[in-house]
Amino acid sequence: MSLLDEIRSRANQPTVPPRQDVLQQPTTDTLTELSATSGVQQPTEVSELKRLEELLANFPEIAARIPVRLETPIKDELDELCNREKVTIETLLEAFYVTCKDKESVMKQVTLEAKKRLKSRKEAGNIRSSLTKLNNLTRK
Questions:
Q1: pLDDT tens for the chain, residues 1 to 140
Q2: Taking the model in full, what pTM does it have?
Q3: 65 in helix, strand or coil?
Q4: What is the largest CA-CA distance in the chain?
Q5: CA–CA gap between residue 85 and residue 57 (Å, rounded)
Q6: For residues 78 and 92, what is the distance between their CA atoms, to the nearest angstrom?
Q7: Which of the 8 DSSP states describes residue 121?
Q8: Do residues 67 and 73 lie in contact, with contact meaning Cβ atoms separated by under 8 Å?
Q9: CB-based contacts of 78: which residues, under 8 Å, 6+ apart?
């Protein structure tokens, strides 16, 4: 028997034997019990739910997570700072922005640094791309 025939014969074999028992249907007693415990909300539960929704509406909406790639030493330092201060990187970034946005000179300095880093990352990306192309050419 060839390897292909063996694979085909295995594909036709059932991997899980069929069930012998039949699932039990819920009785009227269990349905009544379920609806009594969870189906109907009490007035205090409804008012508490509305109160919590109103409370949540006062907080700012949080955007979806974004993947952020950082230089390894900077990431390590930020992780250490966040662990020490018991904050997340996301809230730290928000705080940096909120603190800097009203200070024009600081914001200008930050954006200049960001542009310099972007140029450096693009250059590194181009070098990595060239290395990959050269490695692919030498393999052929």
A1: 677 777 777 776 666 766 666 665 555 565 555 555 555 556 677 788 888 888 888 888 888 888 889 999 999 999 999 999 999 999 999 999 999 998 999 999 999 999 999 999 999 999 999 999 999 888 87
A2: 0.57
A3: coil
A4: 78
A5: 27
A6: 9
A7: H
A8: no
A9: 70, 89, 92
